Structure formats: C-alpha cells, structure tokens
Amino acid sequence: MSPDPKTPVKIDALSGVPTTGHDWDGIKELNTPLPRWWVIIFVGTIVWSIFYVIAYPAIPLHSSFTKGVLGWSSRGAVGKDIAALRATRGPMTAALAKASLQAIEKDPGLLEFARAQGKAAFADNCAPCHGAGGGGGKGYPNLNDDIWIWGGALDAIFATISHGIRSGDPQGHDSAMPAFGRDGVLSKAEISNVADYVHTLSGQPAEQGASVASGAKLFAEDCAPCHGVKGAGNQELGAPNLTAHGSLYGSDKEMIVQTLTNGRGGVMPAWSGRLDLATLKALTVYVHTLGGGQ
Amino acid sequence: MSLRQQQSREMALEAAGGSSPMHAPRQQIYPQSVSGVFRNIKWALLVATLAVYYLLPFVRWHRGPSEPSQAVLVDLDHSRFYFFFIEIWPQEVYYFTGLLILAAMTLFLMNAVAGRLWCGYLCPQTIWTDLFLLVERSIEGDRRERMKAAEGPWTRQRLTRAVRKHATWLLIAWWTGGAWVLYFNDAPTLVRQLATFTAPPIAWIWIGILTFTTYFLAGHMREQVCTYLCPWPRIQAALTDEWALNVAYRYDRGEPRGSAKKNDALRLAGAPAGDCVDCHQCVAVCPTGVDIRDGLQLDCIQCGLCIDACDAVMLKVGRPERLIAYDTDVNIRRRAAGLPGLPTRFVRARTVLYAAMIAIVGSIMLYALTTRGSQGLAVMHDRNPMFVQLSNGAIRNAYTVRISNKNTEPRRFMINVGGLEGAQIEGIGAAVEKDGALILTAGPDQTLETRVLVTAPLNVQLPPSQNIVFSMVDLKTSETVKVADHFLAP
Question: Are B79 and B135 within one domain?
Fold first, then answer.
C-alpha cells in the first residue's frame, strides 16, 4: 500500500523499522521493503500475461472466446497427440487388421496388443450396456460366461459386433421372440403353464401348484421349433438355451411370463461402419478371451 | 535486521524522499578471503562433494549383458533406477519416500546438535557460491579491490576481468549441467555424443537449463537464495533450542566492545572491558553480509568463517581465541550471569527422538531392501462381473495376474491356486496349462500380464467369499511368492 507522503514515517522504537502507520490494539505492522528484483519479476509477469493473452486463447466472450494469434487450441493439441499415438501403433494396428482372428490369438505379441486395444475400445463403446468388465445386466448379455445366444466362437463374435442384432444392418442377426400373450396366441393360463415348465428346464424346482405337464405340451407345439425339443436353444436363430443357468432377463417365473406375453427384441448396434477393422478384431479377441469364448 | 539490510533500507528511505519505500535495492556483498580451521573444512568438503557430483556418473558397475553398467543411473526410458547393487522399479518408489524421510530427519538432527551444518557446509547453493567466489576473488582481487573497482569507472582492466570472470563462471555452470545429464544416460556414450554434437536435443536443453540456474544462483543470487527463496531458515528457527550448538558471538566475553587500546586501558583501570575490538572482520568475511554480533539470525548460514576471521584478530591482539565459536545459548547466558558453563548436552528429547526415527526408518528400509525378492506377483480380482455362473451351474472367478522377473535372465514360473479344493485353473494369453497349474515364461527384467480363470467344482457349497492363495514358484530355484485373494460366489 502506498503511504501518504504528507504523514511522516513512523519508526517502530524496538526494531528501528518504519511502520505502515497501522495500529491494531498496539500491534504495529512493520513496513519491510521488498527486494527490488522481486518487484521487477512481479511486474514482469504482468507484462508477460499481456503477451500471453494476445498469443493464446484467453478472454471469454458472449458465445465464444478470443482465439489468440498463435492459433493454439487444446482440441488441436489432443488431435496431434492422438495422431502421434496412431503413428506409433501403426505397424501393430496394420498387422492386426491383416491377421486372421485365430492367428491373432496364437501370436502372444498380437494377442497382448489386441487385448489391450480391445479393452480400451470396449470401455469406450460397449461398457455402457455390457458393463465395465462385460458383466452385463438385465437384457444385456454377460460376456464372461459360456452362454451365447448367437455363438461364442471367434467368427460368430466378430459377426455380431460388426453387424449387430436387429440393428437394421442387412447382414445383422435378426429374429424375434413372438409376443404370445399380446397377440392372442396363448391365454394367460396357458402362458403361466409354459412359464412353469420353462422354469424347471434350467434345473430349478417347480413352483407349488404348477402344471408342468400341460406346459410341456404347449412348449413342444409353440416353442420347440426355435428353442429345440429339450429347450437347448439354437444359435443359428438366436434362440437362447433355456436349460442354462442364468438367463438374459432373469429366471424367475414372473419374468418368463412377461417374456412370453410381450416377446423380446433387444438391439445390439452394428459397429462395422463406426469402428475400423483392427478395432473390430481387437474387440472380438478381447470379448473372446474374457473367459467364455468357444 | 542485518547491517546490510539496514543500509539498504536507509538508502531506499532516502531515495523515497523520507517516506516509507516499497522496495529496496540489493546491497552487493564483497566477502573477504579468510583462512583457518573452518575455511579448511569447507575447502575439503567442497572438493569432496564436487568430486562426487562430477565423477560419480563415470563409475562402472557390471550387472550383466542386458543391464546398463553405470553405477548410478536414472533410466527414464526403461523406468529403472540403478544405485550400485540396488535396482529400483517404478512400483518401488517407496524407497525414495524412505530416503526423503531419512534426509529430513538427518537435517533436523544436525540442527538439534550443531545448528545449520547443512547450510554452512553441505548445501549445493553454499558449495557452488563458494566456488564462484573463489573464481571472483582470483580474477578480480580481494574485498577491497573489488569494492574499489565497483565504485570506479569501467576501465579496460575492469572490463577484461569481468569478461574472464563471467566466462569462467559459465564454464563451471556448463560443466555442472553437463554432469547432471550424465546421471540419466550412459555417461561415456553421452560425453562422446556431446563432443561430436550428436547428443539428443533433450540433453542440450537440460544442460542449458542447469547452466543458467547454476550461473544465476551461484553467481548473481547468492545469499538471496538463502534469505528469500529457501524455506529451511524459517523452519530451522522454529526447530532450534537453547542447547543446540550454533555459531555465536560470546557477548559475555566480548562486551563492551571497543578499540584494543581503549579496552586495554579500561582493563588496567579495573573497569569492565570486552574482548571485541570492533574490527568488523567478522562482517567482512561473511558471505551473507550479516553481523554475527547481533545474535542468531535468519540470514546467517553458520558457515563458521567469522570464527576464523575473529580468531586471527584475537591472536594479533593477544586475547584468547574463539570469541566467536560454536556455543549454546544456555552457556552464554550462564557465563554472562557469572555462572560456570555446563558441558554441552547432546542427549536431549529431540536428539533422541530424531535419532530413533532415523534408526527406525533406516531399519525398515534396510529390511525391505535385503528381503526384496527377485520376482513379483500381483493379482487383481475382476470387478465386473464379480463372479460368473456357467451354463452347467459352476461358479467361476476371473483374475488379472501380473508377474515380474527382476533378474537378468528369462525365467519360468509355475502358478498355483490353493484354498479351493478341486478348483480348475485356466490361463488366457501367455500362460500354458500343465498338471492343473499354469506355466509362464517372463523375459529378463520384465513383467508379464495374463488373465487367470478359476472355476470351483460343481455341487460344492460355496460361501459368498472364500480366501484363496495364488502362489508363484520359480521352476529352477523354487523361490516362491504368495498372494492372498478371494473367491466370490452368489
């Protein structure tokens, strides 16, 4: 603070140092001058900031900001970093795109690269539905187990990721679980019976008062064409294996009734247009090596 | 407030027309040369520490064909730190934490015993400033000559001396920066590259940065680094006590100060007379420009040069040496009060505490270092999903396993899972299954990651969480590491 030139400088009696003249209950503030070089550097930083504001993006405006004469932007910097990363990974990415899926899994170097790339791509694109580790959720398959609806071999996984399920892609998987109840094919009582039977298929005990026998009869007529006589499913048609432990939508009776009444038609997007070949292959290998690959 | 600060404030006060100034110019200090015990100790330490700094990168230490053969090397490219027989991986930086704690405690202990030993004798700022002052003195002459030249006009002689001085300073600074980068790369190779101008740009950049800081801090900033930039003087003042030895003016003996003649006369007449002849030699030799007779102060780095200067004067005037000496507050006060001095108490609560902490931290580090294995195993349980139920109802858990081989030859390891009877173990990636175990081969000085699936046998009642143990055995040496984890079930 600038001292008033009219008032004389007060000197602290004890230390002999001038004070700022301020007095708080007898406590005085000594006025120790700053080193001159320090003040010069301080002023220098202010001068520097002027040039900085001119050179770099700095001042926020109504709907934009000043861009700076150097044209630097954080988005541009990220773009450069990504390009540099792509260049570094170039040879491995090219090798990945060229090699067959089976060959990738046999080559330790390619496998390590594919799994690392696949893990990152999975986190970016797949984790929102399938979970961070592919654990899945209701309606979204768990990719760690050995239960596959459209097949768990390398080529099957690649096809599913590339073209999706009910995605509108002409090469995509397409099938539908009919809405037996809503469309009036089966009555409420019949649906309940079928649900009772399906409930027992995966080895679960039948509910009390369940008419398993009549359910079995209806199953043979209406469900077996897709799910098979024993309910073991058909991966060609995307008909789930009903004898497996765990189910996509849950295995309690209420859920089975809901499925039979309204049908199911979950959608998996086609990724072939959005991700490049190397990434698709990396994703395939990653999912295949989560533990359930066939 | 030191004499120098007072002068500088008075000058600023004058310039500001009597009102209180906002800032004050630096008062240039012209330390005078001095000789004596403490000067000799400082020379010896200067030579020893600089020799270590400049020559250590050239010391060789053979570790094997795939490892660098430099005794002390920070290998940033491969994330390794080598110190003679010790090799530290990035995940072992806790050794550095331990070193930092040891350094802090040693600093505190030194301070509790004998004040600012670090500042006065060992700090790089002190060492390089001393070296730069030596250059200055040998080119531009001693204190009086330099002061006279600074007041006079820019003569041809003054100019050539200044050029020679700054050139020598820059040369030392460049060498300092050059030695620094040698700690980060194979020294002989880098020296050759520097000599043939084929060194990587980053080496030149770092040499440039350290050349600048050395030249600027040791040549121009000098004592201001201690008084304005360094936090230690502030902390030190709070950590010292009345039993710590400090470079002190024994005012009980020195006061009242006066000319030798006057004090001799007073003494003859039986009047009180001190030994201090007020010759200001202690101020003249001081590298930070303080008057030690003002007592313990922030600016004083306790280098002991004023002791040498005063001793020389005392010898001349026929009074006992060590009017300025390492002494404790307690004893100076006691003698001033006419009491006999007490023996210095080195065993005090704080010295014992610091020594104990050094011993404890040092022992822990030594234990960790001597029992450090040559192989590592890290296991991470999958977070999503926590477990998987297979189509036949079996429960499976997945783990990411990373093994490390800290030796210089490739090694084969066997991984087993214990604690879950009848469990099936399966490896994905680098692992090969054999007899219910996994075999992995890790390259020299490398890590390897693999995914391990553990499946519990069917029809076994599983608790929600069960303790299991991963063990890794070197197939050749049978060295074993075990890591505990869990097996989760619904």
Answer: yes
- In terms of residue numbers, what domain contains B68? 25-238
Same domain, B113 and B182: yes
CB contact under 8 A, B23 and A35: yes
Task: Tell me if B7 is assigned to some domain.
Answer: no
Say what percent of chain B tops pLDDT 70.
96
Q: Is the N-terminal amide bond of B256 cis, ω within 30° of 0?
A: yes
Residue with tokens 């240039």: B28
ipTM of this predicted structure: 0.78
| Residue B459 touches partner A, C-beta closer than 8 Å | no
Let me know if residue B259 belongs to a domain: yes
Give the residue from B73, B77, B79, B51 showing the smallest Cα distance to B60: B73
Residue type, B317: V
Helix, strand, or coil (residue B34): coil
Q: pTM of this prediction? A: 0.78
Render pLDDT for A207-251 as a digit per residue (tens, 0 to 9): 777 778 888 999 999 999 999 988 889 998 999 999 887 778 887
Asked if residue B427 is part of any domain, the answer here is yes
Query: Phi and psi at residue A189, in whole multiples of 5°?
Result: -65, -40
Confirm or deny that A199 is annotated as ligand binding.
no
What distance in Å separates the CA atoms of residue A112 and residue A89, rounded to the nearest whole number? 13
For residue B321, give how far its alpha carbon lies from the nearest alpha carbon of chain A (Å). 31
CB burial string A268-291: b at 16+ within 10 A, e below: bbbbbeebeebbbbbbbbbbbbbb
Is A268 annotated in a binding site? The answer is yes
- Select from B306, B336, B366 the last residue of a domain: B336
Q: Do the annotations mark residue A130 as ligand-binding? A: yes
Of the candidates B22, B383, B426, the beta carbon closest to that of A33 is on B22
**Residues in A touching B383 (Cβ below 8 Å):** 132-133
Give the tens place of pLDDT for each residue, A91-115.
999 999 999 999 999 888 899 899 9
Which of B313, B336, B359 delimits the end of a domain? B336
Q: Which of B6, B383, B391 sits opposite A147 (nearest CB)?
A: B391
Q: Do A135 and B389 touch (CB under 8 A)?
A: no
Q: Is A226 flagged in the annotation as binding? A: yes
In a domain, B10, yes or no: no
Q: CA-nearest residue of chain A to B430?
A: A108
The pLDDT, as a whole number, for residue B373 is 82
| Statement to judge: residues B230 and B121 lie in one domain | yes
Quick one: B396 and B471 in the same domain? yes
Full set of structural domains in chain A with CATH: 94-160+271-288 (1.10.760.10), 188-262 (1.10.760.10)
Query: Tokens 């175990």 appear where?
Result: B437
Per-residue confidence (pLDDT) for residue A204, from 0 to 100: 79
The verdict on whether residue A255 carries a ligand-binding annotation is no
The distance of B147 to chain A (nearest Cα, Å) reads 21
Closest CA in chain A for residue B398? A291
Own/partner contacts of A148-152, CB < 8 Å, gap of 24 or more, are: A148/A235, A148/A292, A148/A294, A149/A233, A149/A235, A149/A238, A149/A239, A149/A240, A149/A248, A150/A235, A150/A238, A151/A235, A151/A294, A152/A288, A152/A292, A152/A293, A152/A294
pLDDT digits (tens, 9 = 90+) for B429-479: 767 777 788 999 998 888 888 899 999 998 888 999 999 999 999 999 999
Residue among A119, A144, A202 with most chain B CBs within 10 A, to mutate = A144
Nearest chain B residue to A10 by CA: give it.
B20
Contact at CB, B384 and A132, closer than 8 angstroms: yes
* Distance from the B17 Cα atom to the nearest Cα atom in chain A, whole angstroms: 9
Separation CA A156–CA A188 (nearest Å): 37
B138/B246 same-domain check: no
How many structural domains is chain B composed of? 3
B386 interaction partners in chain A (CB closer than 8 Å): 135
Contact flag A133-B228 (C-beta cutoff 8 Å): no
Residues B245 and B234 in one domain: no
